[in-house]
Amino acid sequence: MSKTTYNTEELIAGDIKTQVVKFAADTYYRGMPVKYDSDNDRYEYDATAADLAGIFLEGEREIAANGWGTIITGGEIYQGGIVDDSNDALTIDEDFIAAVAPRGFYIRRK
């Protein structure tokens, strides 16, 4: 079996798991970290590694309250593909990488 390479891919670094979930109203960008808001049964932006539940997979998209979208729930992600709520690269340090590893995310440097 040959290895798959992702030469032009900025976010996906290897095998991933995905899930379709409900979101809070916001503009979402590919690579945005999201957390689960159990009070409202939906996902929303949050750059805190301790609360990471997924990474938005689709392109730039404005989602209405309780709209649906796809997130990455685990797998290999490129560090440079993770963005904040302004679509700028999020600073990923060793603490962030260590905090998300138990959740099934392997952050690769590119």
Main β-sheet description: 6 strands, mixed
Radius of gyration: 13 Å
Helix share, percent = under 10%
Amount of beta strand: 35-45%
Written account of the structure:
- The protein is mostly beta strands.
- The chain is built from one helix and eight strands, in the order E-E-E-E-E-E-E-H-E.
- The model has no long low-confidence stretch (mean pLDDT about 90).
Q: Topology, please?
A:
Blueprint: E1 12-23, E2 26-28, E3 33-37, E4 42-45, E5 54-56, E6 61-63, E7 67-78, H1 94-100, E8 105-108
Parallel strand pairs: 7-8
Antiparallel strand pairs: 1-7, 2-6, 3-4, 3-5, 5-7
Summarize the entry for a quick read:
By secondary structure, the chain is mainly beta. It has one helix at residues 94-100; strands at 12-23, 26-28, 33-37, 42-45, 54-56, 61-63, 67-78, 105-108. The strands form two sheets. Strands 1, 3, 4, 5, 7 and 8 form a six-stranded mixed β-sheet that branches. Strands 2-6 form a two-stranded antiparallel ribbon.
